[in-house]
Amino acid sequence: MPPSDAGNGSEHGGWLRARELPRRLCAVASQLLPVTGASVSLHSDGLPMQLGASSAQAAYVTELQATLGEGPAQSVARYGEPVLARDLTGGPDVLRWPVFAELATEAGVRASYSMPLGDDTVCVGTLDLYRDTPGDLTPEQLRTARALAASMTVALTALSHEAADSSEPEHGGWLASLAAEHDRLYQAIGMLMAQLGVAADEALARLRAHAFAHGRTATEVAGDVIGHRVRLERE
């Protein structure tokens, strides 16, 4: 009998293939460009949702940006243009993102390049590229990175439509689970707004600050806020 799509006899082979697509696209980016890792995320209201990464390092540094609320990916999400952090060990990139630069270099990343996903009118996410030495992308490499981001946009859009149109629950299971995780962040922000009497931006900032201070991710702290295991105090 041939092996199943999932490799373990599971009926959720299609679900697993869908989950693997972003990681595989990131692996291709790492092969085509002079980078050591890549990650892809969707962004909504300043809250990135990581879809996949080519390595644990890339996943970690992308999560750092989400937790800190600073870094090239956050700037791309705001302005919709590529952002190239050529040297996270010194110079203007360190001044622009001091905490991210320090923690990224501790993790072995010396340069970070972020490309927008979407079109000329809206940025829906980022392709984030990392490498272990400072340096710039050549014009040709930048064109390749832009082309990869465009390809990822098309692929992820098609995947979303397929999941929405499918009558089989497992086809949408991966995207649904990610959406549920994102919803937990919004739920935690709403709870903090009520507890602290602050606006959404301030609640998100307080959540991120608590996560950073305790060496955790924003997603982890959100789960604890919802589970009443963490309660932030009014300032």
Order of helices and strands: HEEHHEHHEEHHHH
Estimate what percentage of residues fall within beta strands.
Answer: 5-15%
- List the uncertain runs: 1-16, 167-174
CATH architectural label of the largest domain: 2-Layer Sandwich
Mean pLDDT: 83
Cα-atom Rg, whole angstroms? 18 Å
- CATH fold-level topology of the largest domain: Beta-Lactamase
Count every beta strand, where a strand is a DSSP E run of 2 or more residues.
Answer: 5
Structural class: alpha+beta
Number of domains: 2
**Spatial ordering of strands, largest sheet:** 2-1-5-4-3
Helix content: 40-55%
* N-end to C-end Cα span: 63 Å
The largest β sheet comes out as:
5 strands, antiparallel
Query: What's the CATH C level of the largest domain?
Result: Alpha Beta
- Shape verdict: globular
How many helices?
9
According to CATH, the homologous superfamily of the largest domain is: GAF domain
